[in-house]
């Protein structure tokens, strides 16, 4: 029942299942797999697609001939397995050149190099079939506000994205951009730290219709925020172009755990939302296996991400069909129609009538709402006892 199928659109990045288990305190515990090996691993576990940074596939110092050979081998692996590349992005954070940021760097040579690198990476992504291009500004921030004016940084980011939107239009590419927020790490503070901040920033661009967001569970949880609410806001604005699924303890460093492995109820309501509204994009797992694992464990990790999503999808169907839950929701949202005369949209007559209306605020405050029972029933659905 919980086997992934192409219609589920489950994807992983080359950097996820290919993570070798290095951390700030320890050396790698797994050998580096080639991109071709990763494609075959993902095909084995049933994934739909594979996503990549430019340098996940092509080393930053590769010659044109080396680049073409690597890309040809990768395309051959895609053809052999049937995997697709729905999304691509640029690594603008790993190389020492980007230690002060890429698009927001103080050095104009760094900003120009970042644009050059991104245009070439966009070309690569489009060549591989990507329709969505993600921007995560991993170094677009600061450790001290003495070093960079945030207004200058915002202008530089805006100028860069306007430039790249115009490049995509000029090339005739069928591509949209998705901006990914994160509050901190690796910089002390990263600009545009939340999905809401990104949504506000998008409206200042020359081509806002081309640009949406790529919210990530861990990034909002790092800031102690409710991820579902940010996803809902993005969906409401028509800006949910992509999504990164993983898990994360609130307030910690970026843990990138297996989806649903920490905050199961949060994961449930996220899956329920995506399925209820009919989100049709990739379900991309931007997560890593535990450092304790070999590559058989990495396969367990990847299968676990997809299996948990499908289990929660089934639980969402059950929750929506549960007669007691639905009766409670009907009672909670009961509307006898008496307030319709005051409902938006505004008219001066409605405003005048509403100002004169009488409400029994004591009764409103005394009425129990049944949320405890509703939440307990949700827990019982998740625990499998209903």
What is the domain total for the residues?
Answer: 2
Mean pLDDT: 98
Percent helix? 40-55%
CATH homologous superfamily designation of the largest domain? Divalent-metal-dependent TIM barrel enzymes
Oligomer: single chain
Task: Fill in the keyword field for this structure.
TIM Barrel, alpha/beta, two-stranded antiparallel ribbon, 386 residues, 2 domains, single chain, globular, 10 strands, 15 helices
Please specify the SSE layout and strand pairing:
Layout: E1 10-13, H1 14-17, H2 35-45, E2 49-53, H3 54-57, H4 64-81, E3 87-89, H5 108-127, E4 132-136, E5 141-142, H6 150-171, E6 176-180, E7 189-190, H7 195-202, E8 211-213, H8 217-222, H9 227-236, E9 244-245, H10 264-277, E10 283-285, H11 295-321, H12 323-332, H13 348-356, H14 361-366, H15 371-383
Parallel strand pairs: 1-2, 1-10, 2-3, 3-4, 4-6, 6-8, 9-10
Antiparallel strand pairs: 5-7
Helix pairs in contact: 2-4, 5-6, 9-10, 10-11
Structure description:
The protein has 386 residues and is α/β, with parallel strands linked by helices. It folds into two domains: 6-321, Alpha-Beta Barrel (TIM Barrel); 323-383. Helix content is 47%, strand content 9%. Helix 5 (108-127) links the parallel strand 3 (87-89) and strand 4. The longest helix is centred in the C-terminal third of the chain and has 27 residues, at 295-321. The protein is globular, with a radius of gyration of 23 Å. The two termini are 19 Å apart.
């Amino acid at each position: 029942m919980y086997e992934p199928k192409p219609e589920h659109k489950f994807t992983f990045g080359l950097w996820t299942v290919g993570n070798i288990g290095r951390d700030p305190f320890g050396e790698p515990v797994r050998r580096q797999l080639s991109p071709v090996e990763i494609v075959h691993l993902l095909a084995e576990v049933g994934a739909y697609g594979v996503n990549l940074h430019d340098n996940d596939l092509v080393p930053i110092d590769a010659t044109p001939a080396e680049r073409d050979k690597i890309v040809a081998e990768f395309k051959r692996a895609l053809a052999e397995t049937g995997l697709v590349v729905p999304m691509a992005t640029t690594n603008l954070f790993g190389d020492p050149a980007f230690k002060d940021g890429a698009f927001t760097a103080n050095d104009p040579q760094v900003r120009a190099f970042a644009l050059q690198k991104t245009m070439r990476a966009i070309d690569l992504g489009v060549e591989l079939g990507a329709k969505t291009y993600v921007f995560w500004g991993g170094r677009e921030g600061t450790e001290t506000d003495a070093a960079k004016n945030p207004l200058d940084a915002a202008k530089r980011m805006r100028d860069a994205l306007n430039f790249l939107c115009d490049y995509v239009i000029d090339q005739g590419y069928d591509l949209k951009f998705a901006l990914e927020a994160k509050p901190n790490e690796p910089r002390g503070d990263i600009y545009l730290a939340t999905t809401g901040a990104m949504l506000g920033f998008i409206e200042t661009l020359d081509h806002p219709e081309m640009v949406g967001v790529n919210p990530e569970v861990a990034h909002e949880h790092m800031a102690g925020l409710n991820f579902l609410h940010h996803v809902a806001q993005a969906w409401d604005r028509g800006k949910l172009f992509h999504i990164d699924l993983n898990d994360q303890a609130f307030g910690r460093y970026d843990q990138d755990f297996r989806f649903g492995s920490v905050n199961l109820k949060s994961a449930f309501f996220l899956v329920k939302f995506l399925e209820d509204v009919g989100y049709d994009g990739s379900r991309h797992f931007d997560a890593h296996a535990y450092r304790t694992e070999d590559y058989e464990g990495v396969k367990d990790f990847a299968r676990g991400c997809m299996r948990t999503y499908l289990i929660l999808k089934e639980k969402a169907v059950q929750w929506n069909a549960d007669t007691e839950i639905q009766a409670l929701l009907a009672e909670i949202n009961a509307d006898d129609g008496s307030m319709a005369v005051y409902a938006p949209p505004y008219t001066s007559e409605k405003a005048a009538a509403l100002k004169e209306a009488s409400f029994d605020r004591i009764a409103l405050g005394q009425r129990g709402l049944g949320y405890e029972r509703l939440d307990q029933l949700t827990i019982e659905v998740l625990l499998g006892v209903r």
